């Protein structure tokens, strides 16, 4: 087999053998996330890589949602992976969930990223459970393997749409995009502007079944990378949301501790997908570079690539450790640290895949080796909140004792 024959389905998928440290004594003992590499869930994710890889190329080429991959995850119980065992779930730790996402990304980045969006909504509820707060959705996820779809990235502090209070709840209208995984979703977790609230403008956080009257999906996702995530537009047309489906009402334009929960939970999960992409790109580049290995420029580029991969892994590992298995405090400082590390990890992951194109040489530029697609996919990291400039302003203002939001 030549290097040009290497495909996603026959590359190594055991990350224990691919640490960029030259085979340190610890590289075979743990996953880079700190999770047990042989845990039930990490092993299950690794076993799925070949079949996900077979489907990923076609989904990318056609721009179609990875529905068959989601079906496989659901069939194996992954939707309740983070739900505590006492509630009927898989009982995985936050680090295990990050390791699972990193492994899945080696097969299909779009599947991993869409699944991370469901996972972070579940993870936020696990945080509530750990802090003795109501989290009734966890039992429902465990019982039915339902998929939760978030619109948080596009809504952030400001949110969008229109809510009108009526007897027993709200009538809402909005267009929410991107909503990753929405073609395979069961429940939409979103927020809506309530401009005429008695106390002044508010934001209503609520859950809406996709089967509810007035909910539809418009296929608007047509992008450079992550083309299989199904991050389409969810249209809410005068949808009734009962009071019992409202989780939170907060003041518009103001910081709320819920965002620290979301960021501290979500960003390690989301960025684990991109570290998985970067790791696979580095492996493929090294495979392609073997016939030019004696060239000094190839060795130096390879070392530079592995430096950046180590930086990405170490940064996301710091995010995972800081989460304290979803027992962290929901402070602005926690949010700022997660956002800062997200910026740094994004730069490191993108650099890794960019340099992988150079390490692999001309063959890496061809689509048949997959690095080209990984290069497109890894740039999706730029579009998760916050962008680098907004993060720097948020972090800087907080450090200076100012309101961290400003116009962030």
Low-confidence stretches: 1-28
CATH architecture of the largest domain: Orthogonal Bundle
Helix fraction, binned, reads: 40-55%
Integer tally of domains: 3
Tell me the distance between the termini: 52 Å
Give the CATH superfamily of the largest domain.
Acyl-CoA dehydrogenase/oxidase, N-terminal domain
Structural class, from secondary structure content? alpha+beta
What is the fold-level CATH name, i.e. the topology of the largest domain?
Butyryl-Coa Dehydrogenase, subunit A, domain 1
Oligomer: single chain
- Helix and strand succession? HHHHHEHEEEEEEEHHHHH
Shape call: globular
Largest sheet: 4 strands, mixed
Mean pLDDT: 92
> Which CATH class of the largest domain is shown?
Mainly Alpha
In what range is the share of β-strand residues? 5-15%
Number of strands: 8
In DSSP terms (H or I, runs of 4 or more residues), the helix count works out at 11
């Amino acid at each position: 087999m030549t290097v040009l024959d290497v495909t996603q389905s026959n590359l190594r998928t055991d990350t224990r053998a691919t640490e960029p440290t030259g085979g340190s004594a610890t590289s075979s003992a743990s996953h880079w996330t700190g999770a047990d590499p042989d845990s039930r869930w990490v092993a299950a994710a690794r076993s799925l890589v070949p079949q996900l890889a077979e489907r990923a190329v076609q989904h990318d080429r056609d721009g179609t949602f990875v529905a068959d991959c989601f079906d496989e995850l659901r069939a194996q119980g992954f939707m309740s992976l983070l739900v505590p065992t006492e509630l009927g779930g898989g009982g995985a730790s936050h680090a295990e969930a990050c390791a699972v996402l990193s492994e899945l990304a080696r097969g299909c980045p779009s599947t991993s990223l869409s699944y991370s969006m469901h996972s972070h909504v579940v993870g936020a509820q696990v945080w509530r459970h750990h802090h003795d707060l109501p989290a009734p959705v966890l039992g429902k996820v465990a019982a039915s393997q339902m998929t939760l779809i978030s619109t948080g990235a596009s809504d952030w502090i400001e949110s969008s749409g229109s809510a009108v209070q009526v007897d027993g709840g709200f009538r809402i209208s909005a267009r929410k995009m991107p909503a990753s995984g929405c073609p395979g979703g069961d429940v939409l977790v979103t927020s809506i502007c309530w401009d005429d609230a008695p106390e002044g403008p508010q934001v209503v956080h609520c859950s809406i079944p996709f089967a509810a009257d007035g909910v539809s999906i418009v296929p608007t996702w047509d992008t450079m990378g992550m083309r299989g995530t199904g991050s389409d537009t969810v249209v809410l047309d005068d949808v009734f949301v009962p009071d019992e489906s409202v989780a939170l009402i907060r003041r518009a334009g103001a910081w709320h501790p819920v965002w620290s929960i979301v960021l501290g939970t979500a960003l390690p999960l989301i960025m684990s997908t991109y570290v998985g992409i970067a790791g696979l790109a580095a492996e493929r580049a090294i495979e392609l570079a073997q016939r030019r290995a004696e060239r000094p420029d190839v060795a130096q580029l390879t070392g530079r690539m592995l430096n950046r991969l180590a930086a990405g892994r170490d940064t996301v590992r710091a995010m995972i450790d800081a989460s304290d298995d979803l027992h962290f405090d929901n402070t602005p400082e926690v949010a700022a640290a997660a956002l800062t590390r997200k910026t740094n990890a994004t730069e490191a992951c993108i650099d890794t895949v960019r340099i992988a194109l150079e390490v692999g040489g001309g063959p890496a530029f061809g689509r048949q080796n997959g690095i080209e697609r990984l290069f497109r996919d890894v740039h999706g990291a730029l579009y998760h909140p916050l962008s680098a400039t907004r993060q720097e302003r948020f972090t800087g203002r907080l450090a200076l004792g100012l309101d961290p939001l400003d116009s962030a």
